[in-house]
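Can you give me the bound-state structure? Components:
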Amino acid sequence: MAKEVTKRSENYSQWYNDLALKADLAEQSAVRGCMVIKPYGYAIWEKMQGTLDAMFKRTGVQNAYFPLFIPKSFFSREAEHVAGFAKECAVVTHHRLMNDPDGKGVVVDPDAKLEEELIVRPTSETIIWSTYKNWITSWRDLPILCNQWCNVVRWEMRTRLFLRTAEFLWQEGHTAHATAEEAEAKAYEMVQVYADFARNVMALPVIVGHKSPNERFAGALDTLTIEAMMQDGKALQAGTSHFLGQNFARSFDVQFTNKEGKQEYVWATSWGVSTRLMGALIMAHGDDNGLVIPPRLAPVQVVMVPIYKTEEERTAVLDKLCAIKQELEAMGLSARVDDRDTLRPGFKFAEWELKGVPVRLAMGARDLASGTVEVARRDTLTKETMPLDGIAEHISALLDAIQQNIYDKALAFRDAHVEKCDNWEEFKAKIQTGKFLLCHWDGTVETEQAIKDATKATIRCIPIDSYVCEEEGTDIYSGKPSHRRVVFAISY
RNA sequence: CGGGGUGUGGCGCAGUUGGCUAGCGCAUCUGGUUUGGGACCAGAGGGUCGAAAGUUCGAGUCUUUUCACCCCGACCA
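Here's the bound-state model for the whole set.
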């Protein structure tokens, strides 16, 4: 079971893939571009889901579920939207199979052709807005605040575990409001929820900001984003929140009677995060020994490895460890005693490190005699021997310290890789070395596109809560006047 | 769809200019010794060499066709 992981510094993308596979998070499925999320990976995803779901509910959002299939006609109502997704849609054309008349196997029954094709949802705006039409007649029906946890399908050319798969899991929130102000406020509120989750649960420093028009969601008037930096200096869009204006309401004719008795189109938002966050977790915190999971996200926060030679020692150690486990669980922490007796301690140490468990306890005959336990922390890879007395309180405090340390480390890394740049030649060179560059931009799509064509770098966001830099200057590429700096980076 | 590459036990690979019974590492199984950082020894099981056709006394190796996957582009959360 020896699992050698490629060194992070040698080949970042190989290292990433190795980690996803060997930490038991996921594997490639037999279906092209699709992924199997394994129990350990799913446990982390469930933790993300549970935490986010509670945060959504605190903002008044309720969960619902809408169909997987979208009639083609729905999909084509919003022109920009269909243009944005048309190239990556899976389409259902038939509803029945039959035995192959020429021999073995089954073929699609040509008589079972659907009158109207169904699109497997790449996102649910269209089906949801066609439903909202029936839900909304008066200002009293608003706002509607729904979220759904589901899968979506985007037929991508090239895929990578968690970061880009043909099918992925996500949540998508869709809200309907009586006024533009209220909808914009909601879009802003939700991006702040994402930022809060990223920073405080995932220990992921993110930059909140607006997308440039070029990078906006298809059909949105404004897209807010949280952008994170991975350890190779590339940017990862970790979540988005869109102000959709009245675009979808117009396309699906969703009007309400306002307080003045007049018909008005509804204002909309949508927002989502996906299993891509799993990719962010790997790339933001992982090291050469494997995954590093922030305590608030870890399905197992403390793992305990017993060390013994005799059956008596085994029983005695396990007794002590189980007592600690109960104490920890009483404090709301999750702990696991690794009592597998076919594996040796050294193997278990390596395996739990690979899986990123924040704290590991080891106890053997020596500790039994002295009333101590060895406490190892994953983030620093350090260990110390502690007295059993008060151990649960110590671990609880340690988990908080680890959570903070992981965030601080990621933040320090990011800050060390963000800089201002005012020279085009310098820009071209530096952007390739894995940096976020704060540059002046003239605000035009043409300039943005020209920079992308020349360097592959895109505007990740126009920041609103960190690296905000509103000052006069000239565009890095065109030399035209600019009023603020924006974040440029190569992205995933 | 353009450029490049790879298909050989579960995984990772070797296999020379065609040659004998297709090998190695890891994993698996059995027995024993071990157990404070990925154990060791001994033994065992497991492969129609991606598929089809062809050349040949003989094909993992050569030819043709075909399929699948990976990497670099275009596209994207």
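A couple of observations. Chain A has 14 helices and 26 strands. The mean pLDDT of chain A is 93.
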